[in-house]
């Protein structure tokens, strides 16, 4: 009986110790963490917007770079959370870009660029940076000009998830600024007992 209990405790302890590794995202050959639900495209921005819209989703482009500790934290702590990943998968088509990559990108204005020159053109300098695009293809605008919202840098679960919700709910087209929306949601979560008062 004692041997059985020791075996069960050991198995449980090993499960707990190995859990973070199970939650870790796969590492691609480009040195970027990968989610199996990210969409691989030809990086034609107009085509990607149309594809996302046809699927009843919004397009979000995420810039990352090799060795980015904030990107790693985002994948391992935020995108591994089912509440976050399930919401994003249901409502967004996410395409990953390498901040210093050489893959070809076609901007909304027709320019053909590399990922790294697109990041420079659009003014994105932090990783991760998530860019949210409109539901329809705008004429003559660049991605940076057409974006309905941009989330530069790494944030905690609720800021991250609430930005996706705010975009999905088209908060950018209304009068409630994201910060007000976020504060309201956080207050609701506290009242529901899902968050502490810290």
TrEMBL record:
> What is the protein's species of origin?
Roseibium polysiphoniae
Residues annotated as domain Thioredoxin-like fold: 53-136
Keywords, A to Z, come to: Signal
SUPFAM superfamilies for the chain: Thioredoxin-like
Name-wise, this protein is Thioredoxin fold domain-containing protein
Would the keyword Cell membrane turn up in this protein's UniProt record? Answer: no
From the UniProt annotation, give the residues forming the signal peptide: 1-24
InterPro entries tied to this protein:
SoxW, Thioredoxin-like_fold, Thioredoxin-like_sf
């Amino acid at each position: 009986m004692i041997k059985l209990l020791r075996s069960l405790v050991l198995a449980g302890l090993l499960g707990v110790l190995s859990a973070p590794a199970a939650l870790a995202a796969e590492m691609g050959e480009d040195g970027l963490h990968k989610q199996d639900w990210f969409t691989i495209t030809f990086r034609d921005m107009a085509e990607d917007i149309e594809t996302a819209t046809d699927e009843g989703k919004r397009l979000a482009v995420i810039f990352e770079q090799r060795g980015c500790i904030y990107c790693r934290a985002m994948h391992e702590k935020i995108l591994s959370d089912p509440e976050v990943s399930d919401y994003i998968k249901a409502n967004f088509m996410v395409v990953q870009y390498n901040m210093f990559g050489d893959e070809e990108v076609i901007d909304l204005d027709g320019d053909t660029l590399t990922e790294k020159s697109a990041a420079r053109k659009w003014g994105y300098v932090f990783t991760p940076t998530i860019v949210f695009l409109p539901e329809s293809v705008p004429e003559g605008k660049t991605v940076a000009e057409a974006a309905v919202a941009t989330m530069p840098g790494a944030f905690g679960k609720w800021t991250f998830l609430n930005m996706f919700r705010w975009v999905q709910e088209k908060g950018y087209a209304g009068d409630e600024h994201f910060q007000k929306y976020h504060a309201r949601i956080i207050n609701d979560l506290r009242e529901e007992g899902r968050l502490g008062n810290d």
